[in-house]
Design brief:
Layout: H1 2-33, H2 36-51, H3 53-72, H4 79-94, H5 97-124, E1 131-132, E2 135-136
Antiparallel strand pairs: 1-2
Length: 138
């Protein structure tokens, strides 16, 4: 009976600690989402969606065809044409100054998040293997 009670108390403590960690994580997320970098990213995204609405529709349409054709391979009907059409519309979109700025901001945010994850991992244990291509490895 004492063993069961001890396990119950330990489980209660673990749940409480986990809940506290999650609450603090959400606080950090709220801070990130209210940062100038994130707000600028959201604003730029809205501008791009408004300013290039038609181009985005065309891009998504061509991307859907491209993805379908790419999954099947070069035997897909009009494979080369679909590939070229997708490349053209992608280039047209990605050369827009606002889109370039968006990707630069996104890269800065990703770099910040990677640094944050690395710092957290270092606080937990120096034996946690660090990121490889933006992810933690075992």
């Amino acid at each position: 009976m004492i063993i069961l009670k001890a396990k119950y108390v330990k489980m209660k403590v673990v749940i409480k600690v986990t809940t506290e960690i999650l609450a603090k994580t959400y606080d950090v997320l709220d801070e990130i989402k209210s940062s100038a970098l994130f707000l600028e990213l959201v604003e730029l995204n809205q501008l791009i969606e408004f300013k290039y609405e038609e181009l985005l529709k065309e891009y998504h349409k061509k991307f859907k065809l491209f993805k379908e054709a790419f999954n099947i391979g070069p035997y897909y009907p009009d494979y080369q044409k679909i590939l070229k059409d997708y490349q053209k519309v992608k280039m047209k979109l990605y050369l827009k100054e606002e889109v370039k700025d968006y990707f630069k901001l996104e890269e800065r945010l990703n770099k910040y998040l990677e640094e944050l994850m690395t710092e957290i991992a270092d606080c937990i244990s120096p034996y946690i293997l660090k990121k490889e291509l933006g992810c933690f490895v075992k």
